[in-house]
Design a protein that fits this description.
The complex is a heterodimer of chains A (about 350) and B (about 280). Chain A has about 350 residues and is an alpha/beta fold. Chain A is about 35% helix and about 25% strand. Chain A is built from 13 helices and 13 strands. A six-stranded mixed beta sheet of chain A has the order 5-6-7-3-8-9, with helices on both faces. In chain A, strands 11-12-10-13 form a four-stranded antiparallel beta sheet, covered by helices on one side. Chain B is mainly α. Chain B contains twelve helices and no strands. Chain B is globular and about 80 Å long. The two termini of chain B are about 35 Å apart. The chains are: A alpha/beta (about 350), B mainly alpha (about 280). Chains A and B meet through helix 2, helix 3 and helix 6 of A and helix 1, helix 2, helix 3, helix 5 and helix 6 of B.
Chain lengths: ~350, ~280
């Protein structure tokens, strides 16, 4: 259990973390989500006592981190893959960490085995690929068999097999009753692993909700319609009391509409339809909408050039349409202007 | 992690576990130990011996002190040692060799900042003062043992080559000389901890060692600066070593110089501790 209360970090004029209050509960994977520069890493560093908060408090099972007598057995953290001396072998890197907490040497072999680095245990860390470095970092986090695990962007640099591995690892760690806190800027990744979601933007808490709630609340469903007899169709739908939104590309959208009903209406009035498809906004879009106002570094791209694949990375619960963002206005076009 | 057996256990485990008592949900089979300085010392010992920079700096140090020492010993005659200790050939190597210890002292701490290892270290051991203490102790012991060995070896070899020339006691010069260069290294470690940057800290330390040795020549030219120049000449690092090895037998055996270095080192260590607790990593 990690509790944050009014946690604040200010660098000069800039509020990196602004009055964050939330709790990370054991037994589930909590996703910590936010765009780049939202303050995720700063928050994690403050949790680990590396950065001093300007105000507020973090408690680990009711204690301050620097009060922990055996920190590695409480918290295992992967902050960044570079948190190691490149000239030291994987084994020695883990050994010096183990010794600092009185963890037996045999445990080093165990975690090396868990992350699959036994074969390169005597190799220097600087020769490791990004993925191997990440695995070594995870081995370090697992070293004390801790009850709380914290991962900062753990899937960065991992290949698909590695990503699959770490997803399962996080789930199984949580299933053992541990607290798992994992940061990411990829909603699609979180949708697969996290049970609970904490979203921040520009250091402020934007959402603290269960994953299921978030999905339900944020996945907008609508029906997309294309027809050569657009004006007639609009009249018919309007007459039936259905609100239609016209988009740039000439398609029509009906929020929360039933495709069956629209299809039947069109048939009754003998209107030709070229497309009638139920759509669901992806979680990625929902996330971008949520954090839109707080994105720190905007790319001011021409909306018409926006790559549809950026708007909706596939996620299991809400597969986006192949041409997700094409016809409609690009996401956040309003905030980009403002 | 994904064997069927494992998954079955995991699926059965969670619910009762975390609903019962949050925070005490998972108990590791690894015995809990309260960490203390001993753990930090073991950890720092592993660190210092598992990187190549230690072997390089100490290797070059030994090569310089022993190599130059033996060369000097071979070029001198028995009569040269009538009034000076047998360890004097080690002095010439130490003038250069001290830079190796300074480099190692800086690297022991600054390499952790350079590589990001420091975050891992302080996560594993949030009592930062303990980490710095362990680093200081381990480094001091390593530097002292290695330099005492080098100086002692040169002393033994020289007395073997020029035996019977004098009955000067030279054991004290081994300890004093080793102490002086080790303290320089400790000072470098403290400076490295404050500056957190290898090149910056090494450069600063070279300044500390070299500037007081060069500057007096210029200061002496001006009448008003003469006293400062003289003090600087008396207390600079190369001269301190010369005093310790009784190169200039008129003055004392380097006691005041050693005391000054100890004072400066203590102040730097105090500064390093103060900054360590206050700063973000």
């Amino acid at each position: 259990m990690i509790e944050l209360e009014g946690l604040t970090k200010r660098y000069g004029e800039k509020m990196a973390v602004n009055h964050l209050t939330f709790a990370v509960r054991p037994g589930i994977v909590t996703g910590f989500l936010g765009p780049n520069g939202a303050g995720k890493s700063t928050t994690m560093r403050m949790m680990l006592g590396l950065d001093r908060p300007t105000a507020g408090d973090v408690r680990i099972d009711g204690q301050h981190y620097d009060r922990l007598k055996d920190p590695l057995k409480y918290i295992g953290a992967l902050l960044d893959a570079k948190g190691m001396h490149g000239g030291r072998s994987a084994f020695n890197h883990l050994l010096c960490l183990a010794q600092s907490n009185g963890i037996p040497r045999s445990r080093v072999h165990e975690v090396l085995d868990t992350v699959g680095l036994t074969a390169v245990a005597r190799k220097k860390a600087k020769g490791f690929s990004l993925g191997m470095g990440q695995r070594l970092g995870i081995a370090g986090a697992l070293l004390g068999d801790p009850r709380i695990l914290m991962f900062d962007e753990p899937v960065n640099g991992l290949d698909p097999e590695g990503i699959h591995w770490i997803r399962n690892l996080m789930k199984s760690l949580a299933a053992q009753g541990r607290t798992v806190f994992v940061s990411s800027h990829l909603m699609s990744e979180m949708a697969l692993t996290a049970d609970h979601l904490v979203v921040i933007g520009q250091g402020r808490l934007l959402a603290d909700t269960s994953m299921a709630d978030f999905i339900q609340r944020n996945s907008r469903s609508y029906v997309r319609i294309r027809s050569p007899q657009r004006e007639r169709l609009l009249d018919v739908l309007y007459g039936a009391g259905i609100t239609v939104v016209e988009t740039d590309g000439g398609t029509l959208e009906v929020d929360g509409g039933k495709p069956e009903r629209i299809g039947e209406l069109a048939a009754q009035h003998q209107i030709v339809l070229h497309e009638l498809s139920p759509q669901q906004a992806s979680l990625e879009e929902a996330f971008m909408r949520l954090t839109a106002e707080s994105v720190e570094y905007h790319a001011h791209a021409d909306p018409s050039l926006a790559d549809p694949s950026l708007a909706g990375t596939p996620s299991p619960s809400a597969p986006p349409p192949p041409s997700g963002g094409q016809g409609r206005q690009a996401w956040g076009s309003d905030w980009k202007k403002g | 992690m994904s064997t069927p057996q494992h998954q079955m256990q995991q699926q059965a485990a969670p619910a009762p576990n975390w609903q019962a008592a949050p925070g005490t949900s998972y108990t590791s089979p690894i015995p809990v130990t309260r960490t203390h300085l001993g753990h930090a010392l073991a950890s720092e010992w592993t660190k210092i011996k598992s990187v190549r920079s230690t072997m390089w700096t100490l290797g070059v140090f030994l090569l310089l002190v022993v190599g130059i020492g033996l060369l000097v010993a071979a070029q001198t005659s028995d009569a040269d040692y009538a009034e000076v200790p047998y360890t004097i050939p080690a002095f010439f190597g130490l003038i250069l060799g001290q830079i190796c210890l300074i480099t190692l002292g800086v690297l022991v701490v600054s390499s952790e900042y350079g590589t990001g290892m420091i975050r891992t270290t302080f996560t594993a051991s949030p009592q930062r003062y303990r980490v710095l203490t362990a680093k200081l102790l381990i480094f001091f012991v390593v530097a002292f043992v290695v330099s005492a060995f080098a100086i002692g070896f040169v002393g033994l070899a020289t007395s073997g080559m020029h035996g019977g020339a004098s009955d000067n006691k030279w054991g004290g010069t081994v300890l004093m000389g080793a102490l002086y260069v080790s303290l320089l290294g400790v000072l470098a470690l403290a400076v490295g901890s404050m500056l957190r940057h290898s090149a910056g800290a090494i450069t600063s330390m070279l300044g500390v060692v070299l500037v007081p040795a060069i500057l007096p020549a210029f200061l002496m030219m001006s009448e008003s600066m003469r006293t400062i120049g003289e003090k600087m000449q008396e207390y600079n690092a190369p001269n301190a070593l010369a005093q310790i090895f009784e190169l200039d037998s008129d003055n004392g055996g380097g006691g005041p110089q050693l005391a000054l270095l100890a004072g400066v080192t203590a102040a730097a260590i105090a500064g390093a501790y103060a900054l360590l607790e206050r700063r973000d990593v």
